[in-house]
Amino acid sequence: MKMASFSLKSGFCVLRRPLSKVIYGSPNLVDLRVAHISGKALRTEELVRPEPWPYMEKGYRNHHSYYDKTTKRFDENTKVIFVEGMQGLGKSEFAKSLADDLDMRYFPMITTDLVYLTPNGEDLRTIDHKVPPSMRSYDEQKFLKDPKHPKALILQLHKLMLKTCQYFDALAHLFNTGQGVVMDRSPYSDFVFAEAMHRCGYISKNELIAYNKAYNNAMGIIMKPHLVIYLDAPNHNVTENMTKRGQGEEKVFTEKFLEVMEEKYKFKYLKEIEQHAEVLIYDWSEPGDVEVIVEDIERIDFNKYEEDQHHPKMKNWRFKNEWDACERRWEFTERKANLVIRAFMVPDTNCPILFVDAQDKKLYNDVVEEEFPSYRYAQGFNPDVGDSVLFKSKPKHRFIELSKQIYY
């Protein structure tokens, strides 16, 4: 296993080990970051943070900021780390182990199951035979069977939206608890799949344009990470690993598909994200030692760009003052729905697949209400399933993550 940083100019992997150097920030800025992340081996005692704010029950409103500040919970491990790479390389196991070593919260790779599951766990896909074709489900498993289905674009937009929502959840957790987060894939790299889908004929040029509009909208409202770890391997290794999993992935993720993904990952995504975050690249043909990677991470000085307040690296994490940090915390805790609407709720009129007939939608709603009474009204307001609605005027405030049962 080799550690490398991606060369922005050449696009090749340059082997190096970063040296530690402490550069202190401007006194006019709130510096949220002690220089170096620490793993278990460097900690002589467990990390002790102030009590986390109960944001899932109370939210975080403007008046809360007067008596519960944000940066008091931050320490050297209050960071955002993305783990990226091709399929079948063991990213999930690595990301989970890394989060455990760094005392961070792990956010697994998201799936479109969340689109089709009600708050009570009922599966909307079970009524496909009762609803019009335009309203039937199309998830990852159906994509593997029919990648050129007209709804391939909708699948990728669903995944982009879910990854974006998951990142909002991760940021809300970080700002309210001070605990760093490790994410298995991120919304920033999602375009890699869309580009490969277009080049392989799974989505059209107009559909790719529609996807890019939504992608650009979403990327304009989320924060950049501190660190991206890219696990690399030759495409033939990736294909072998997918074949061993026995899910039929190799039939859809063909050699051409993987070549486009590799090209977009290495010569676009990594080169662009390196402008804003630290990047580590590892040869993962054979899984490496997480402890060795933790040692490499511990050598990174995240404060070294503080001399230049306008440097794009870590710019999102240099706040003007405490109120600026509290405002970000309020935004990701309270305004997730508004942010998602801004990014995704204006479909491209050049893509008819993004629109459904009103009559089809009405028939679908009727079937859903008949089959799933708990989905008829807002959660907690469905008397048909035993909810008590007496004296209720509004839902009790509760921060709702995409899928609490998956995250914990």
What attributes does this structure have?
disordered C terminus, two-stranded antiparallel sheet, 408 residues, 15 helices, alpha/beta, single chain
List the helices and strands and how they pair.
Blueprint lengths: L2 E4 L6 E3 L14 E2 L23 H4 L21 E6 L5 H11 L3 E3 L5 H4 L23 H6 L6 H26 L3 E4 L6 H9 L5 H15 L7 E6 L2 H11 L3 H4 L2 H19 L4 E6 L6 H9 L19 E2 L2 H13 L1 H9 L13 H14 L32 H4 L1
Parallel strand pairs: 4-6, 4-7, 5-6, 7-8
Antiparallel strand pairs: 1-2, 1-8, 3-9
Contiguous helical run count: 15
Query: What's the number of extended β-strand segments?
Result: 9
Q: Taking Cα atoms only, what radius of gyration do you get, to the nearest Å? A: 22 Å
Order of helices and strands: EEEHEHEHHHEHHEHHHEHEHHHH
Shape: globular
Helix coverage percent of residues? 25-40%
The main pleated sheet reads as: 7 strands, mixed
β content, as a range?
Answer: 5-15%
Q: Average pLDDT across residues?
A: 84
Low-confidence stretches: 4-34, 403-408
The order of strands across the largest sheet is 2-1-8-7-4-6-5
Structural class: alpha/beta
Distance N terminus to C terminus? 31 Å
